[in-house]
Amino acid sequence: MLDHKNRVADIVDCLRSAAAGADVAWSISNALDRMRYGLHGSLTPEDRDDILRAIVTAHGAALANLPVFSPAQLALGFGAMATKVMSDCQRHRELPLGASLDLHDRLRIFQSELDIVAREQDIAGRRKARANKSINVALGTASTSEAREGPENL
For the chain, how many structural domains are there in total? Predict the structure, then answer.
C-alpha cells in the first residue's frame, strides 16, 4: 500500500504521462482512480499545487489527443478533478452533501468515458496489429512464427 506522498506522486505521474501524450485516456483514468480512492481529504497546499499543475497540462494534452471529447466535456471532467483536489486540500470547507454527490458522480462519469476511449484504442491497436500480420503473411514477409500461424489465426 502506498503512503500519502507516493499516492500524490502516482497521481502526478499519471497526469504527466497523459500530458506527454502517452496513453492519454488511460493515464487520466488511472489518475482519477487514484484521486477518488487514495487521498481522502489529506492534501497539503504543496500536494494541491503539484496535482493542479499536472491537471492543467493533462487537460491540454486531452484537448489535442482525444478528439472524441468536446472541449466542453473535457472542461467538465477536468473541472471536477480540480474541484476534488481543492476540496481535499480544504477539508474544513467540505462541500454540501448534494454538491459532494454531484462531484463524485461527475468524476465517475468522466472516468467511465475515458475507460471506454482507452478500450476502443486498445481494440483498434490489436486490429491494426492483426491487419499488419495478415499483410506480412500475404506478402511473404512474415516472421517464421507468423507464417506458421497463418492469417486464419488473426
Answer: 1
